[in-house]
Amino acid sequence: MKIIAFITEYAVVNRINAHLKLTFGAAKPPPSYIFEQVALTAARFSRLLTSPLGLRYNSGISRRGDSSARANFLLRSPKKEIQMDSRKIRFLLWSGCLGGVVLFAGDMFYYGGWGPAQLSVIPKIMAHVASWRLHLGSLTGPVGGGLELLGMLGLWFCCRQAAPRLAAVMLAGFYVRTLFIVLQHGLFGPLGFALQSCGENSGALAQMFRLNTILAKPMNVGFFVGALIWIFLVLKKRAGVPRWTIFLCPFFTSWLDHAIVYMRAPLGYPLLGGWNNVAWTAFFTVLALTYKKRALDSRLGEAAKSKAIESPDSSRRVS
After folding, report:
1. Residue at which a domain ends, from 31, 48, 74
2. CB atoms within 10 A of CB 303
3. How confident is the model at residue 260 (pLDDT cuts 50, 70, 90)?
4. Which residue in 78, 155, 244, 259 has its CB near the most CB atoms, within 10 A?
5. Residue 70, number of CB atoms within 10 A of its CB
6. Total structural domains in the chain?
7. What does residue 128 show for φ and ψ, rounded to 5 degrees?
8. Structural domain boundaries, residue 162
9. Angle made by CA atoms 86, 89, 95, in degrees to the nearest 5
10. DSSP type of residue 83
């Protein structure tokens, strides 16, 4: 590929010709690709003039008179896509695992304790817990939520190559779920202070419980959208993980809290209080251990070859 640069300053061209004492005579017309390159460059330059960035850049170059820089800018190469190997994707998945651990620790700061699986004792524990635990529990919300967002980004990188549109919708759903989780998690700090200051029958406490219910609705919608798309992509072998990993998806494991209520002390109560975060931690851990990008690339390559064999026209275009 040849790169052609044009000097558009006529004074510079005239000085070069006068210095070299050049005269021009064409024995035959120039080849057609010269005109094609000129047309492409002119079209690209006209698009740049219509954008604010192009106007600023073009005006700055014209003041300096640097025609070669303008030509290089017009003929610059396109941006490269972000390349993610298996190691980087696993790092994002491990970040999601760490986020689940941090959020579970926040739950234990709020109302952690040993005993049978009974959620009814949570208000009684929070009414007498130390204030530093409520502060620290609130701080774990954005930290754990940010790490879980990195894990969600790792899920997107797992399947964006095979199904980019579905992967984008899945990522949006999981992000909505995580953002509302952070809000809901941080609400328990003020809720604990309201319990300690106003008692269980205060109006402020009732409004906080109502707000907690409101936050749960968009959180559940985003979770179900993202989880169902993830399960579909895994079953279609578009995510680079084994199919059996869907059974560890929180879409299924989150329902196990109905069985944990029968677990006795001392592990029953902490597991029930933070089971949702335990489920997400196990989910990200299994994905980080089982993800294989090479297997996904080989399956995509085989699918492309089979389509090329079935459609001769497409194989000609590819070749």
Report:
1. 74
2. 13
3. confident
4. 155
5. 23
6. 2
7. -125, 10
8. 86-304
9. 140
10. P
